[in-house]
Design a protein that fits this description.
Layout lengths: L1 E7 L5 H16 L4 E8 L6 E8 L2 H7 L3 H11 L3 E5 L3 E4 L2 E4 L25
Antiparallel strand pairs: 1-3, 1-4, 2-3, 5-6
Helix pairs in contact: 1-3
């Protein structure tokens, strides 16, 4: 699971933003199931920042967002930007790609979460 966030940060606010982002990634990477977090700043447009956090799975992502300190600091921080969570469907290392089967049901966009029983047939 990937959490990808984009931020527009005016130059005068970059030091404060960097400190808040660093605290956010410290809190997230301290959670079980959080693989790593990467904070980046655009080389072409210095007001554009990105934060990418990788989790082992959806459950780890949801649990990582639950502790009080995360809800107190990370969630308000993420609300400053545009955040989306993505299911990882392929990875590659050393020129070798590995495909993953989706754990999201094919009808996930048409039913309410409370009605879901599990992915009888995964999204393709």
């Amino acid at each position: 699971m990937l959490l990808v966030c984009g931020f527009t940060v005016p130059d005068p606010e970059s030091s404060e933003f960097s400190a808040l982002a660093t605290r956010a990634i410290e809190l997230l990477t301290a959670q079980r199931g959080c693989v790593r977090a990467v904070l980046g700043r655009s080389a072409d447009s210095p007001t554009q920042w990105s934060l990418t956090v990788e989790f082992t799975d959806v459950v780890a992502y949801r649990r990582a967002m639950s502790p009080f300190e995360v809800r107190e600091h990370v969630i308000p921080f993420l609300s400053r930007g545009e955040a989306s969570a993505y299911e990882i469907l392929a990875t590659a290392t050393d020129g070798q790609a590995e495909q993953r089967v989706s754990v999201v049901a094919a009808d996930a966009a048409t039913i309410r979460p409370s009605d879901a029983a599990g992915p009888a047939s995964p999204r393709t």
